[in-house]
């Protein structure tokens, strides 16, 4: 794993998308909630969110990240469903793997739930659309500093100064 411990915390967001080609009749069955395994898109959303949260267990060298948000959007069109996953964290490394895992598992869930009625499904176009990083102010030390003992204030002040220098 890459050492990111010296990097400052940043608000990080990543958006990934992918598509699954489905027969028109399969999309109609999904819309009418007539797939035997249940509500396809609701299940795919939950599966994608769960998968994003498990990324570090699935990809060996990924860091475990505290995810602040994972959102899965699914839009059905003429002959496909498009899945978009947005993942967000405040961490020292990016969240793009979580977004890619989320979108991929959501697509695989749609595939699994519809395979009995649609033998021609194809997953395609899985891609990272964007990733952003914004600086985060270190305010926890300053807030707790006023209630801290003198020795704790020194440690908090040094941590804040180090964080400001590293930006």
Strand content: 25-35%
What is the mean predicted local confidence, pLDDT? 87
What is the helix content?
40-55%
State the secondary-structure class: alpha+beta
Number of domain units: 2
Relevant CATH superfamily of the largest domain: Molybdopterin cofactor biosynthesis C (MoaC) domain
**Count of helical regions:** 6
- Write the element-wise H/E pattern from the N-terminal end onward: EHHHEEHEHH
Distance N to C terminus:
23 Å
What is the C-alpha radius of gyration, as a whole number of Å? 21 Å
- Multimeric organization: single chain
CATH architecture of the largest domain: 2-Layer Sandwich
Query: Which regions contain 5 or more consecutive residues with pLDDT less than 50?
Result: 139-147, 155-167
**Globular, elongated, flat, extended or rod-shaped: what is the shape?**
elongated
Give a verbal description of the structure.
- With 167 residues, the chain is an alpha+beta fold.
- The protein has two domains: 126 residues, Alpha-Beta Plaits; 31 residues.
- 41% of the residues lie in helices and 29% in strands.
- The protein is built from six helices and four strands.
- It has a four-stranded antiparallel beta sheet with strand order 2-3-1-4, with helices on one face.
- Strand 2 and strand 3 form a beta hairpin.
- Helix 2 runs antiparallel to helix 4.
């Amino acid at each position: 794993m890459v050492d990111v411990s010296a990097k400052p915390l940043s608000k990080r967001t990543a958006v990934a998308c992918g598509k699954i080609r489905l027969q028109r009749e399969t999309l109609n069955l999904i819309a009418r909630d007539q797939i035997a395994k249940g509500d396809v898109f609701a299940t795919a959303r939950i599966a994608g969110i769960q998968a994003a949260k498990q990324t570090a267990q699935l990809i060996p060298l990924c860091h475990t990240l505290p995810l602040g948000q994972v959102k899965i959007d699914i839009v059905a069109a003429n002959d496909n469903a498009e899945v978009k996953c947005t993942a967000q964290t405040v961490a020292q490394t990016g969240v793009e793997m979580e977004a890619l895992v989320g979108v991929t598992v959501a697509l695989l869930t749609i595939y699994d739930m519809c395979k009995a009625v649609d033998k021609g499904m194809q997953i395609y176009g899985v891609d990272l659309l964007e990733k952003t990083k914004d600086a985060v102010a270190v305010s926890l030390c300053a807030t707790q500093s006023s209630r801290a003992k003198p020795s704790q204030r020194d440690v908090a002040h040094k941590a804040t100064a180090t964080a400001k220098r590293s930006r």
